[in-house]
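Re: magnesium ion structure - here you go.
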Amino acid sequence: MKELELNHVYKDYKLGNKSKFNALSDINVSFEKGELVSIIGESGSGKSTLMNLIGGLDSDYSGEIKIGGIDLKTFKEKQLDDYRKKKIGFVFQSFNLIPHLSILDNVTIALTLSNVKESEKLEKAQTLLKKLGLENQLKKKPTQLSGGQKQRVAIARALINDPDIILADEPTGSLDSATTLQILDILKEIADDGKLVIMVTHSEKVASISSRIVEIADGKIVQDKKNDDYKKGRHTQKLVEKDREENLQKGKTKKEKHLSLYSAIRLSLHNMWASKTKNFLMALGVSISLISMILMLAFGSGLTGYITSLANSYSSPTIVTVSKTAVSEENQMGFMQDLTNPQPFENTQEKDEILQVINAINTSLEERYPSITYRVDRQQVEYGYSVMTGMSPGAATINFDLDGQESSNDIFYLYTTPPYYSDQQMLAGSIPGKPEEIEGEMVGQIMVSAKIASLMGLDDYTQAVGKIVTIKVDHKVGQTPLDLEQKFKISGIVDVNMFENMLVVYVDYNYFSALVSQNGGTLAPTSFYIHTDSENTTNAINNILSGMEGYTGSVENQMANMFSQMMSTFSIALTVIAGISLLVAMIMILVVLYMSVSERTREIGVLKSIGARKRDIKKIFTTESFLIGLFSGLVGAVLSGLIGLILILMFNSLLGFAPLSFHWYYFALAIGLSVVISVLAGLYPASKAAKLDPVDSLRHE
Ligand code: ADP
Ligand code: MG
């Protein structure tokens, strides 16, 4: 039985527009083990085409190619991959070493594809490289070797799986004459070891040392002659130790092994490292969208948390504030407008609006909260009044006369004293006391926000307590115009946190009401306070209120609600933006990976020629896109952490608090998303790589 036998082999290349090019026609030839065959012929005569058919790289032919008596056509894809891996060793004119792998890794790659043990791989490769005189080059990269050395590495790679057939397509075409002889010597040695070596050559001289010369012209064999002068060399050492029997047995009993995940990761890391600048820049690009996403989430939760905690710190657990939210025609959102032009509760002989609200609350308590026995009592409620005078400049001012320097400032918020204070709210002094007579004039008391106190130009703003100021109001209160100019004594300074930079004045409700009456008006409350028996009841009533049209909780609650509404609208917009930027990042990864596939086309061809399966190629590329995603995610997470830290420090020193809060799952989400988009982006390039035709890839420039 012949080792290799070709019967009536025809090969047509399909060209565009349905025409064909006949590259080989009726090839009939057979080869034995131990032969060193030179295939000669003009350029374009079909030599490489023949080699690719024999090597199982091209299955599109007609006729029979038999290996050890078995027709290649009967092989399934998996068997063909195996055939290339175990039976054939390829050597190319342009060496086709993988540039980003070391010499050692280039040689062992075929074993890596079979998931051979690390120690076994190393031993085999070292022995082989030593015999080829390359024992000191293991760690080098291909570019650091001379042409002859590179070709010896390629021969080592071809021999590592102990194949029966070595196919060398112009192996000396790129070498000088001295190196050519060395390489020929090696190939001869391989043949003398009992392998079949078929090499393509242009050179008569090269051909003359072989045992047989086959000449091809225009796709046909025109001459086939034995070289009678051919002498087998005497080699004491064989290049590859025979353990064929053992291998065959293993092959039968053991399941075939393939590229392990560990090796795929190692290969990917090598390649990523080889183009580290590109990969780092890409990771940076991807991380920008991740950073913006993480920061957006951190600001969202930080601000919402801050506002909510503020609102909570301002509301007592046993007091419910009820305000009117009558929507004006000009402003459907209502909030600002309502305060500027307040809608007081109607409290006339015909209608007691407050009583109606209370009755509604009590009915709801009875129906929806049977366990709560508490009922609101009309007699127990306290009135409140607030107006956002800041919306109409000049409507309300606070004037102080300090050392003859008159100063007038717009009051932003005029508020009656609410019935509760947390300790931290009162910065100095106390809540307004009774009016007293000073220099023949009745002077009431007010509390002011720290901002007002600080405007008074005192060494320490707490010194504002006890100072006399004049408040002028020229504003509509309800339906009643209010024209008022009154002296007040500052009784306390309040921390109004949420309105920190606003000028807020607190007046006692009853005193303010009396002032309005003196001016011919009637002050109607814009809110009222209910004292409850427990936090549970407070929550229940607040729940009832939120479902009651036209009424709402405290100003702070309104603010907080408005704010979270704003934030959620904002969040949607930001999420869309973050989504778009992630999409852009994904396309960027796709482009880079796609380019990487075309850059590495030759490498893919080489991998296929040494038996890589489609799945192995896919695995290598998918692993790479996974690692790129992971890397980008980590870069993004670390950078967001750093930027977040800087922002927190900055905000803390500027504002005394940082409106952003980070949770570990933001980072996990960012890394996860990065991996997902990267793997998704890598799917197409990876499958493109896997589908590349090996012959075309090897031809690729
Ligand atoms: P050689 O190796 O002897 O120089 P090849 O086997 O590479 O020649 O090519 C044989 C002929 O087939 C040439 O004329 C070449 O142009 C043609 N050929 C090779 N590959 C293709 C292909 N993929 N499509 C069309 N024609 C091809
Ligand atoms: Mg060729």
